[in-house]
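Following up on my earlier message about S-adenosylmethionine. Here are the inputs again, as you asked, copied directly from the submission form:
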Amino acid sequence: MEFVMNGRPPVEIDTSRPHPARMYDWYLGGKDNYPVDEAMGRQMLALDPRVPVMARVNRAFMHRTTRWLAENGVRQFLDIGTGIPTEPNLHQIAQRVAADAVVVYSDNDPIVLAHAAALLRGTPEGRTEYLQADVRSPDAVIEGARKVLDFGRPVALSLIALLHFVSDEDGAHDLVQGLLSELPSGSYLVVSHATADFTPEESKAATEKLKAAGVNLALRSRDEFARFFDGLDLVEPGVEVPHKWHPELGEPVPGQDDGVIPGYGAVGRKP
Ligand SMILES: C[S@@+](CC[C@H](N)C(=O)[O-])C[C@H]1O[C@@H](n2cnc3c(N)ncnc32)[C@H](O)[C@@H]1O
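Thanks, got it. Here's what our run produced:
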């Protein structure tokens, strides 16, 4: 675990196998990926050409949920599985609504650490920090986040396109409940997640290809997704495909309605 305050510490990037953060960057048209990521990305596209649309739909879900949370008074954000910076980043959206919003980003991929400086340019009134940590070590995440966030006040915990990289064996549901147990009443959970519910054949093929390349994907059904929100009050409209969650808060993603987006998104409030 390491905080990056100024500059970039040296980090080791493994370019011998694809990494989720870099593949996602490639889908989004970014430049922070390697031939191995592009090659696997192209294999995913061959299975389902809508993968880049899905990535943009997911990103747009983050934009709208963050805006909704900030407009509804949330001033602290803990974003785990941040990804490579892609503008607008979460802190830019939150601080556009509320300049004093405080954001802690966290990811376990060294490539995100290498680009963390771009995540730290927040407003003078607010604060943004980056924490290098693995969500499967939640105590380290909480310990680091506590140094920046006031856990006596509501926090939005955002786990966007993260939990399908955390298996049931790693205790994904308990992990989320454990993180939520640290947060006070009035806090929120935001999750988006890939599913095989709509496209079982393509999803199975994609999961197998990724597994062979060392990336484990845990696709979850609607019920399994909804279980992450046990004990929370779901914000309207509840569990939805991501682009149907408060579409009025952003612009539609071109192509989002041309077929199935195999994912779910939801926001829940801790009572
Ligand atoms: C698909 S990207 C999502 C990025 C961003 N949240 C978004 O939705 O635009 C998934 C991110 O989760 C990170 N990740 C995967 N497993 C993780 C883990 N065990 N701990 C922390 N981050 C993880 C990856 O490195 C990657 O940056």
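One observation from looking it over: The radius of gyration is 17 Å. Hope that helps, and feel free to reply on this thread.
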